Amino acid sequence: MPAITLTQSVVIGDQLALAWGDGDESYIGLKELRQSCPCAVCQGEPDAMGFVVKPTVTYTDRSFQALRMQQVGGYALQVTWADGHSSGIYTFELLRELGQ
Fold first, then answer.
1. Mean pLDDT in runs of 10 for the chain (100 residues)?
2. The domain 6-98 is classified under which CATH number: 1.10.287.610, 3.30.2020.30, 2.60.120.10, 3.90.1720.10?
3. First-to-last C-alpha distance (Å) of the chain
4. What three-state secondary structure class fits 9?
5. Is the pTM of the predicted complex or chain greater than 0.70?
6. Which of 24, 25, 21 shows the shortest CA–CA distance to 2?
7. What pLDDT was estimated at residue 74?
8. Which of 22, 23, 55, 66 is such that its CA lies 20 to 30 A from the CA of 46?
9. What are the residue boundaries of the structural domains of the chain, listed by start?
């Protein structure tokens, strides 16, 4: 399977627009993007027995405002949200899935 490449990402209104190297485009609502944050603070992490307890995450209006995005290597985007959250690394595979 060829590598997924991202050529451009930009916030338009309340959506993240993504242009992919294969010519495809994806649009993801910022609310959906934030609620899909893959970090351990948002999704939990396994304990010593392998059980994952998803934490309760509280959102405000600022939680869904993307301030900045930066590419992480050639495989992911990191989003800084207006409420200060920035630990989620969204892989290109996850972004393609969310944009379907």
1. 87 97 96 97 92 92 96 96 97 96
2. 3.30.2020.30
3. 18
4. strand
5. yes
6. 21
7. 94
8. 66
9. 6-98
Considering only CA atoms, which of 71, 75, 74, 79 is closest in space to residue 28?
79
Distance CA 60, CA 84 (A): 11
Residue with tokens 């800084």: 80
| Alpha carbon distance 28, 98 (integer Å) | 7
Supply the DSSP string of 21-78, one letter for each residue: TTS-EEEEEHHHHHHT--SHHHH--B-TTS-B-PPP----GGGG-EEEEEEETTTEEE
Which amino acid, 94? L
Structure tokens at 66: 């993307």
Beta strands in the chain (DSSP E): 6-12, 15-20, 25-29, 66-72, 76-81, 89-91
Length of the chain: 100
Which one-letter DSSP state was computed for residue 97?
Answer: H
